[in-house]
Amino acid sequence: MLPAFFLPRSMSKKRKHMTESHKDAARAAQADFDPDFDLVTPEAEWDAADAFDDEPLAPLYRRNFDGEQFDLEERAALRRVAGLSTELEDVTEVEYRQLRLERVVLVGVWTEGTASDAELSLRELAQLAETAGSQVLDGLIQRRERPDPATYIGSGKALELRDIVVSTGADTVICDGELSPGQLVHLEDVVKVKVIDRTALILDIFAQHAKSREGKAQVALAQMQYMLPRLRGWGQSLSRQMGGGRGGLATRGPGETKIETDRRRIRERMAKLRREIGEMSKGRQTQRRERRRGAVPSVVLAGYTNAGKSSILNRLTGAGVLVENALFATLDPTVRRTETAAGRTYTLSDTVGFVRHLPHQLVEAFRSTLEEVGESDLVLHVVDASDEDPEGQISAVRQVFGELGAGSVKELMVLNKADLADPEVLARLLRHEPHSVVVSARTGQGIEELLAAIERDLPRPEVELEALIPYDRGDLVARIHASGEMLKEEHTDHGTLVRALIHPGLAAALEPFRTVAVK
Which pLDDT tens digit goes with each residue over 106-134? Predict the structure, then answer.
């Protein structure tokens, strides 16, 4: 008899409810297969197998230093379900569905740079595919001056790719680039399995991980922008509908095709999503104005995906944001209020991670969220120092900064994962980026230096003032500590004598108590 751990889990569970007749039939079938099998199988053997099958599974993630991590169980539930089909017949459906990736083959076109650059890009594509829940079987690179306009890799290589798909049993091909609608159709016609591109893969990951109402709306808008020129159909999808009314005059004519109707509905839905995102962004704009009015500096964590931004946020503020060794693990921005060692208050925000060739649809859809980078007083540019190409990550992130108009914001480079990085790589990065801090969010190395660098780089108040504040106005002293920089504090018989750097708004409140002012 086969042990329980050789049986599918669904079958082993059903055995708990087997009647005696079912057990007798199973014993008889086993005896036919194995002449040495004893029909009189002890009942304890069945029970032991059942009990073995119920052994609890160990948890997937343990991040004690990152807070409670309430989202881990929910995130684990988003894993792909094995055995879902992605055959070519599903491609002809007009509506957009969540991609069900299982066994995939990766293919890229190497047009510029070195071979190691092309391999690095394909390895990153493999990480994206695994984040989406698929199993990578093989990866191929085709050297061309430019992608083939018909099949992306050329007709001959497409036939070779078809043989690889058949031999590996893959059900999906992922291309390392954004394919035109025609390229998708022609390549699918050759390989006979579903073909998607890098953009569709990233959009699918975003759709899985978005949790807030605004995040889901932004992802839906980006998906529709990508889907609109790629709608396809056959049969009824290409048939034309009659005009309006119940017949008679003005009702005859070609009408709209089904696919034209779908495009019109998608455009209407996109317009509605843009309005909703605009309304939801008003709350963030109001919060930003309140921080400006209260002279609270804003610090933003930005950088490449999986560089450790959420881990640093947890280290600095104890926010308990989800931390996972995966690309785009967190999408929704998180803002926490914290203080410097001197007691000065500032906000620390976590933003969505960037990636090479970030789809322009996502940049446009998430613009209202990413504007937080351009409106900040200081950007902590987090870099994975243990990555194979940290300079490439820096370049990709700064390119997005330029698109957002955040190129002029003060930037502090945070070289994270120092416990895993090569010391020579760290030394090279420090030479190229002198305004940097080396840290490890996992071990806590360099966190004190990072806090000191943040306090040093925060914008300093522009008004220097000396005032004698009565003891019954301790609230003004507290405001100086929270939003200003206290240079001197002395308790006298008549009140608290302070000398501080403050903002104009607070200076106006202290005007009645001013003794000396230096501008």
Answer: 999 988 888 888 888 899 899 888 888 88
Nearest CA among 321, 292, 285 for reference residue 209: 321
Q: 347: closest CA among 370, 319, 324?
A: 319
Q: How far apart are CA 243 and CA 253, in angstroms?
A: 7
Pairing state between β 135-143 and 103-110: parallel
**Secondary structure element (H or E) that encloses residue 367, with its range:** helix 367-374
Quick one: DSSP state of residue 45? H
Give 206-258 as a 3 state SS string: HHHHCCCHHHHHHHHHHHHHHHHHHCCCCHHHHCECCCCCCCCCCCCCCCCEH
Which tokens hold the place of 202? Answer: 């990233």
Give the integer Cα–Cα distance in Å for 109 and 349: 37
Please provide residue 24's backbone torsions phi and psi, each rounded to the nearest 5 degrees. Answer: -65, -40
**For residue 261, which phi and psi values (nearest 5 degrees)?**
-65, -40
User: What's the full length of the chain, in residues?
Assistant: 519
pLDDT value, residue 15: 41
β-bridge mates for residue 491, sequence order: 496
3 state SS of 276: helix
Question: In whole angstroms, what is the distance from residue 349 CA to residue 298 CA?
Answer: 8
What are the tokens at 222?
A: 């980006």
Q: Which amino acid is at 100?
A: R
Q: Which of 416, 374, 366, 423 is nearest to 394 (CA)?
A: 416
Angle 423-432/390-403 helices, nearest 10 degrees?
40
Q: Which of 481, 455, 434, 500 is closest to 340 using CA atoms?
A: 455
Count CB neighbours of 407 within 10 A.
Answer: 12
- The structure's pTM equals 0.66
H helices, E strands: number in the chain: 18, 14
Conformation bin of residue 492: beta by default, left when phi > 0, alpha when psi is -120 to 50 = beta
Tens-digit pLDDT profile for residues 377-391: 899 999 999 998 899
In angstroms, the CA 423 to CA 416 distance is: 12
| Torsional sign, CA 95, 99, 100, 105 | positive
Measured over the CA atoms of residue 36, residue 39, residue 40 and residue 43, the dihedral's sign is positive
Give yes or no for a contact between 333 and 348, defined as CB atoms under 8 angstroms apart: no
Cα–Cα distance, 346 to 286 (Å, whole number): 17
- Taking the C-alpha atoms of residue 96 and residue 93, their distance in angstroms, rounded to an integer, is 8
